[in-house]
Amino acid sequence: MRQHDETMLLQTPFHSRIAKACELNQWDDWKGYTTPHVYTEVEQEYFAIRNSTGVFDLTPMMKYRITGPDAEAYLNKLLTRDIRKIGVGRVAYAVWCDDAGQVMDDGTVFHLGENDYRLCAYNRVMDWMMWSAMGFDVTIEDETADVAALAVQGPTSCSVLKAMGFEGIENLKAFGIRTYAFDGVILMVSRTGFTGDLGYELWIDPDKAELLWDRLFDAGKNFGIRAIGGAALELARIEAGFLQAGIDFVAAEHAVRMGRSRSPFELGLEWLVSFDKPIFNGRRALLEEKKNGSRYRFVYLDVEGNKPAEHSFIMKGSKVIGTVTSAAWCPTAKSNLAFAQVESKYGNVGEVLVAEIYYQRELQWTRVLASCTVIEKVIFNPPRRRQTPAADF
Fold first, then answer.
1. What is the DSSP string of 283-310?
2. Distance between CA 141 and CA 118 in Å, rounded?
3. Which member of 1, 28, 209, 299 lies 3.0 to 4.6 Å from 13 by CB, making a disulfide possible if both were Cys?
């Protein structure tokens, strides 16, 4: 971990390179770390993801290492998904709930070896993980500061990694893991990401972070490589239909008001709930919800016009039935997309609702009632995302 004043935000191991590239000097606070919001221009960074290669510093993501004889059994109780089906060298998306079946967080599970896992999360959940570990022979370590990470995303990302000398990287399947020797340490590469495009995530010892950055950008100079900030990543993840904790749902542990947290069913994540395993946190409550129905439904909306429906109310006739959680005009999908939580009796695919949109131009606010249609799934899902071998671009 880099030295810092106690009143300042932490800096990731890539900060010396990031600060030099961040021309606009616009920064975010991500779990106590200084991270770039925009380097140069949001549109340029977004189109790097979709047309070439965008590089995003993932280091602040919470990373927990779970080892020990009961690691698999422990995670199978903690998470709603059946962890036994995730083979060594594979990654899976998962959620975990409290006893009331409300989502605590979502993240990715890396199966690194026998009874050896890494759980990546948005929120700090060490207390919850330790409480849930009672009775299990496991060791849980917070290795957030011990692992530097970069997301390398976009159609030329595989070509960049091949130019770095990573043999066979094109044959790595989606959600797979490979390791490579890199200047005396092990570099782990996973075919994962938060952009819905062809992409990889690189995991390495922090002492080699600057060298990794330098070699990556040197290899990518002929492939349109560009550093991207949080604003461009946000646009890409909405276009891809990915949920974001703290934006699309409130973690059950952080919810102050009753009824503000959500279950996996209410977030459209019922496919992550495995009732065919005997026990997991929230199982009884989720079985009850499956039997009696949910309060809310998570829907994707194709919104009329080009004004993003950020923070809009969703109406059916004159009745407010829900709210928008994420929204953006998505250039590649050529669509005005929104995610919304609506009352469960609404939101069937094809149903037409209304978004109450407010936007400001030159100090004047304008109200628009925009028609929006419930769509089955997001529009952007290119074949290259999962194509194996990954194509050269």
1. HHHHHHHHHH--SEEEEEEEESSSS--T
2. 9
3. 209
Residue with tokens 């006893």: 99
The amino acid sitting at 14 is F
Angle between helices 42-51 and 230-240 (to 10 degrees): 50
Q: Measuring CA to CA, which residue among 148, 152, 175 is closest to residue 162? A: 152
Q: What is the dihedral of CA 34, 109, 185, 205, to 10 degrees?
A: 20
Long-range contacts (CB closer than 8 Å, 24 or more residues apart) made by 274-277:
274/80, 274/81, 274/82, 276/82, 277/76, 277/82, 277/84
Strands (E), the chain: 26-30, 33-38, 53-57, 62-67, 91-97, 103-113, 116-121, 139-142, 148-153, 177-182, 185-190, 199-204, 225-227, 296-303, 313-316, 319-330, 335-343, 352-361, 364-375
- Per domain, the residue ranges of the chain are 15-59+147-228
Choose among 6, 55, 58, 51: nearest CA to 31: 58
15-59+147-228: CATH architecture: 2-Layer Sandwich (3.30)
Q: How far apart are CA 235 and CA 239, in angstroms?
A: 6
Amino acid at 134: M
> pLDDT of 235-267, one tens digit each?
999 999 999 999 999 999 889 998 899 999 999
Q: From the CA atom positions of the chain, what is the Rg in Å?
A: 21
Amino acid at 38: V
Structure tokens at 127: 């207390």
Q: Give pTM, 2 decimals.
A: 0.94
Between CA 209 and CA 189 the distance in angstroms is: 14
Amino acid, res. 276: D
> 146 by DSSP, 3-state: which?
helix
Task: Please measure the distance between the N-terminal and C-terminal CA atoms of the chain and give it in whole angstroms.
Answer: 37
Give the tens place of pLDDT for each residue, 93-127.
Answer: 999 999 999 999 999 999 999 999 999 999 898 99
- Does residue 376 come out as left (phi exceeding 0), alpha (psi in the -120 to 50 range) or beta? alpha
Q: In Å, how far are 90, 186, 223, 245 from 113, measured between CA atoms?
A: 10, 15, 34, 28
